[in-house]
Automatic annotation (TrEMBL):
UniProt keyword annotations, A-Z: Coiled coil
Coiled coil listed as a keyword: yes
Species, as recorded: Thauera aminoaromatica
Database matches in InterPro entries: KfrA_DNA-bd_N
UniProt-recorded name of the protein: KfrA N-terminal DNA-binding domain-containing protein
């Protein structure tokens, strides 16, 4: 036996009455959901069969409402009028429930709109914090440039004393080679850290630019300022690279001269400590940038989820509005049919009264 053969008109009719009692419209999915429960046949049935039975149910209801004096199988005539009024009341209840649901969804959408505005405000604050972090890093780069200038001045002063300390070259040759290798490693570490900061700045700039474009077109001005700041950072990096090349040239001169005093060794030790401090600051800045990227990703996900919820709510509201319009149209048709059916009833009643009067007169 197929699934559709189990579904009969009586099953669909009973399900439609139960749905109407809840104040809802008996649509095909709702009827199939009831039919698939244990209280009915436990099967949904085919879409075509169920839809045909539903149309037959509505036709039967329309025919029932058009008949002036009607009877319903299994229901006494005294209760037919009560059932008609109950059906009208159920239609009104369904209409009221739909309007209340619409108001609740509008309130929910307003709440979601306020939440999205709060999310946008939070994203703006995150962008401001990122901008402040970039300014702090630029200050650190400027401080590094000043430190490099001090080192250049110290190296220039040391070169003046190289002629006087040339007799110590042989004794300190090994020490100078070791310090030179350490200096190379330190400069390599500094270059790698600077490159990592530049990459992190570029990635952070791109992410911030996309987020600002999604939130508001007015952020374009801020994006232009950010690009100018990036250009300044690029110029600073080029200046630092130039200074690094000059320091490398000075280091090669020192290697050729093969001389360094005890004071130069002390200054190199101080420079090493300063570089360690700068490396620690750079690591902290990278950690703060990672936190900002995660926060921006979370804001973007929440924004996408809010857009999806708003779209789903809009679709549901449109479907309910269409169903309410169909229900109103059906109620108006039923009212027009009832008015048309009352006119023949009044004519028949008048004819019956005239006949009774004639019979009484003849008697």
């Amino acid at each position: 036996m197929s699934r559709s053969s189990v579904i009969t008109y009586e099953h669909v009719r009973q399900a439609c009455y139960e749905i109407l009692a809840k104040g809802e419209r008996p649509t095909r999915p709702a009827v199939q959901e009831l039919l698939s429960s244990d209280r009915y046949v436990g099967q949904k049935g085919s879409n075509a069969v169920v839809q045909n039975h539903i149309q037959e149910f509505w036709s039967a209801m329309a025919n029932t409402l058009q008949v002036p004096v009607r009877t319903v199988d299994g229901i006494p005539e005294a209760f037919v009028t009560i059932i008609d009024r109950a059906l009208g009341d159920m239609v009104q209840v369904a209409k009221r429930l739909a309007e209340e649901g619409l108001r609740e969804r509008e309130a929910h959408l307003d709440k979601r709109s306020r939440e999205m505005e709060a999310t946008a405000q939070e994203a703006n604050e995150r962008a401001l914090e990122s901008h402040q972090l970039r300014l702090r890093m630029e200050s650190e780069v400027a401080a590094l440039r000043m430190r490099i200038g001090d080192l250049e001045a110290n190296l220039a002063e040391s070169q003046k004393k190289l002629a006087e300390e040339s007799h110590r070259v042989l004794e300190h040759q090994r020490t100078i080679d070791e310090k030179d290798a350490e200096l190379v490693r330190q400069f390599s570490s500094l270059d790698a850290a600077r490159l990592a900061i530049e990459q992190a700045n570029e990635h952070h700039r791109l992410e911030t630019h996309r987020l600002l474009q999604q939130l508001d077109n007015e952020r374009q001005t801020a994006s232009k300022e950010r690009r100018q700041q990036n250009e300044e950072v690029e110029r600073t990096r080029k200046d630092a690279a130039t200074a690094r090349e000059e320091i490398i040239a000075l280091r090669e001169d020192c290697a050729r001269l093969k001389a360094e005093s005890v004071k130069i060794c002390e200054r190199l030790t101080e420079a090493t400590a300063s570089m360690e401090t700068l490396r620690s600051s750079l690591e902290k800045a990278e950690a703060q940038l990672s936190i900002s990227e995660r926060d921006l990703a979370a804001v973007r996900v929440r924004h996408e989820v809010a857009d999806q919820l708003r779209q789903e709510a809009t679709v549901r509201l449109n479907v309910q509005a269409e169903e309410i319009g169909q229900l109103r149209q059906e109620i108006a048709n039923l009212r027009r049919r009832r008015v048309k059916s009352r006119a023949p009833e009044e004519i028949a009643l008048t004819s019956k009264e005239e006949t009774d009067t004639k019979r009484a007169n003849s008697d």
